[in-house]
Amino acid sequence: MDQAIGSTKPDSPDMAAAPAVERGRFIKNAWYVGLWASELPAGTLVPQTILSEPVVFFRKQDGTPAAILDRCAHRFVPLSMGTLVPGDRVQCPYHGLEFGADGRCMNNPHPPGTIPTAAHLPSFHVVEKYSMIWIWMGDKPADPSLIPDYSCLETSPAIHITDPGYLSIKANYELIANNLLDLSHVVYVHGGILGSPGLEQSDIKLETHGDVVTVSRFVKDVETPGMFQMMAPEGYERGDSFTSISWYAPSNLLLKTGSCKTGQPQESGTGYWGIHLLTPETERTTHYRYSAVRWNVMTQGDEKNEQIRQKIGELRTFAFADQDAPIIEAQQRRIVASTTKLEPALLAIDAGPVRCRRILDRLLLEDR
Amino acid sequence: MDQAIGSTKPDSPDMAAAPAVERGRFIKNAWYVGLWASELPAGTLVPQTILSEPVVFFRKQDGTPAAILDRCAHRFVPLSMGTLVPGDRVQCPYHGLEFGADGRCMNNPHPPGTIPTAAHLPSFHVVEKYSMIWIWMGDKPADPSLIPDYSCLETSPAIHITDPGYLSIKANYELIANNLLDLSHVVYVHGGILGSPGLEQSDIKLETHGDVVTVSRFVKDVETPGMFQMMAPEGYERGDSFTSISWYAPSNLLLKTGSCKTGQPQESGTGYWGIHLLTPETERTTHYRYSAVRWNVMTQGDEKNEQIRQKIGELRTFAFADQDAPIIEAQQRRIVASTTKLEPALLAIDAGPVRCRRILDRLLLEDR
Amino acid sequence: MDQAIGSTKPDSPDMAAAPAVERGRFIKNAWYVGLWASELPAGTLVPQTILSEPVVFFRKQDGTPAAILDRCAHRFVPLSMGTLVPGDRVQCPYHGLEFGADGRCMNNPHPPGTIPTAAHLPSFHVVEKYSMIWIWMGDKPADPSLIPDYSCLETSPAIHITDPGYLSIKANYELIANNLLDLSHVVYVHGGILGSPGLEQSDIKLETHGDVVTVSRFVKDVETPGMFQMMAPEGYERGDSFTSISWYAPSNLLLKTGSCKTGQPQESGTGYWGIHLLTPETERTTHYRYSAVRWNVMTQGDEKNEQIRQKIGELRTFAFADQDAPIIEAQQRRIVASTTKLEPALLAIDAGPVRCRRILDRLLLEDR
């Protein structure tokens, strides 16, 4: 399925489904990023609220990650306030009950040897992959092959990967996903920092493959954006610019952007992958992790590459934290403050978000 | 209609209607003060929540004010975070949609030329008058002749007008209006600063003319309050003191206070007009704007007049911010914290507030 | 009734009643501590929210305490913002209405001599006893003989009593009472500060007498805890250690702890009484007052006794404020955040709390 967005009329019945913010529910049977792998050193207990559930992450002695409910079965104290004890167990700080990586209570000292059946906790499937700890919050089988491909984070040398980024955004994850999938806001929100000259007049291509929605833009023979000039040797002052972003239901995205010489294949140019990982914390707050990985690096020496790595990281953090986040959080506040149900006016650029919304609606039904 | 308040017995059936704080609704078809005119410089976008609705104010190129909903029709972002662009349009910061002073969408760049009908926003009637930007939030015809007469703010020289005051009060507007209309609290809350000796024992006169309620007090041959001695030449150490305050439904008030020589006409004395402008922000918060204008100024020279101007301004700000506001906000908190409906004991001094309440009840019915 | 806790099986039907946190109601017909007597100097008006009701405490000219609703009958302003005036009356800061210790309106200046019947306020029974101001919030007869015996606070010399402690805890009072009644958490939460070596393996004895539940522990011939070594002369390095705590429904507790020579009567040893006074402020917050009083003091001279007094006070404040409170408040947050009703796993150590819960359930029924 592949269709130019120009053919979708605004306000057409096909686009009638408005993005909802306050669903009051989440898709539980899906892979979410719980933490960057680097956020979970051995021996630590790391709490994280995910889909409104308290979760505590830790590493077993063999280094593999584990996650159980962060709420003791006895008195409901956060286990993350306790201690990781030998035998891959989390010990409650209040009365010393110990829970294994599968959530089973392994020790109750009151008196020793008595373990009530009710003292077992939910545990969650976790997988360490692509420098991240992935978590599956639902009851259906957790298939690691469903994790989107972020292999660029594993296969690229560290000098071409920006530091793992984290922002806590006070908005529903759908508002952030819509923002990322929407290449047209770049001109208004990130003018002069991200995007390419002329990009706003380019055609938008929309593709859907299963539960993946991809939006692409391409501009021919324009001044090469500063960020790509920095990444390329001389002779790239002008060329073709391109960006595509894929949304993997429900909330992870992968962007590819770059420039090449006019009329040449895109792969002959250079640019970066943008990694965008959204994990609902609550209905109104989202964990947002991000990074960037250069592709087709045109060797310039480690000193220059480190400069570029720093620069991409800084620009992207500025764009998300100082430009996107204030707008998205204000949007969330306006929606929450409204006493009536808001019906958005739909534009041609909303075709991507609308398609995502339909997929989410279906997944929510399947999730029950 | 004109009646001395002494004739109203406390607890009489006539006063049974208790002031409510939590109506959960507002009178929309009425004039409210949106801003002081000086709060809206040319070229700015000024947000203000009024009757729980987000409003953005701006000036057209001809200088006249305009106000539209401060929430883009597309993604609900506050337009006040955007830019005022040529053609008297507000441009959304997110995707660049442009809205005119009448709320119509004038430009959608995605793609240019397509403007969905649903992309139009509510606009509000606004009028600049008496140094204020007035706004009408309802759907009924907005008749500027209904704006109460604050012409003293326009006709007096600036040296006789205190600086425009603003306080954000964490209380329902009715509680503040009741406070202002109630001349008897002055002895207890503002003792030594406002009011006249003996005022608490004077008769209260209550008049109603249409939707205007006026409460007046008069004391004969007492020591002239310090503030009026300051405003008068020698020979005014003793005389008659008087105060009357008119409430213009739903929430603007005008006070006249002063002193004159014993037995002389009040107009032969001197004093000031007190301007009190209440605009509900939410059910529990109110924009309170205030100023004072001297009447029958007895010329003393600019230096002395400026001292008087400063002094009146300081005393009144102190009285509102440091004396009234803490009490009214504590009152609001007690009402909100109560789990049962509170029925106030009614006193003779509540005749004014009770009459206002009846008018508000009727206006609420008419407002639907 | 007297039974070793070992005989109560976890998960037995007898323990099925789970502690509730969010009852949405309180036991009103009971004695609560309103203030330490020292918190109420003559001439002051002291506000305190108790069982979600605003109360103002003051002393009459004869020194006896009084308490009335802290909300004027007229405009609902907190009377505690007003003034105590001659005649044991509280004057409202807003309009000067005066209320007596029995809640009756004694003066309304608007106009003088008119006092509407509705202007009377609820008053509360208060008793000063054992260095505390006790308050009875309900309508049933308030019998001072029902106040638990804290006479140690009155009969002991001041040098053996720690300073009156106060903490505002962001948790329901039942969670705190459960914590105090549960001697088994000491090993995990207060390890090295409170408790005795081997205490966790000792038998727990549970006794119920009317509405008093007592939990006791005893360990034979162990190293004497540092705090008791400090309180005893030489020769007490080893001995028997014991702790018992009684809960007086609904929310006051008295602990007795100490050490004696091995095999000797407990009364031949030394230790302290722990006073724990819980007063619900709201469903989710509690006033917690505490102190400690030494018993069977083995004279060491005033300097040493003052050191001991300070040390017990510091250790206990640290244990409550820095060790217990963070855990109990996190427990409360987890309970509040849960969207489903939480059913705790019950352990043998919960026999005491479960018995208290049954008594509270009965008292709630009787309270209506």
Kindly describe this structure:
- Chain A is an alpha+beta fold.
- Chain A has two domains: about 1-15 and about 155-365, Naphthalene 1,2-dioxygenase Alpha Subunit, Chain A, domain 1 (Alpha-Beta Complex), CATH 3.90.380; about 30-140, Rieske [2Fe-2S] iron-sulphur domain (Rieske Iron-sulfur Protein, 3-layer Sandwich).
- Helices cover about 20% and strands about 30% of the residues of chain A.
- Chain A is built from six helices and 18 strands.
- Chain A has helices at about 150-155, 175-180, 185-190, 225-230, 300-335, 350-365; strands at about 1-5, 30-35, 45-50, 55-60, 65-70, 85, 90, 100, 105, 125-130, 130-135, 165-170, 205-210, 210-225, 240-250, 250-260, 270-280, 285-295.
- Chain A has an eight-stranded antiparallel beta sheet, covered by helices on one side. In chain A, strands 2-11-10-5-4-3 form a six-stranded antiparallel beta sheet, with no helix packed on it. A four-stranded antiparallel beta sheet of chain A has the order 6-7-8-9, with no helix packed on it.
- In chain A, a hairpin with a 2-residue loop joins strand 13 and strand 14.
- The longest helix of chain A is centred in the C-terminal third of the chain and has 36 residues, at about 300-335.
- Chains in contact: A-B, A-C, B-C.
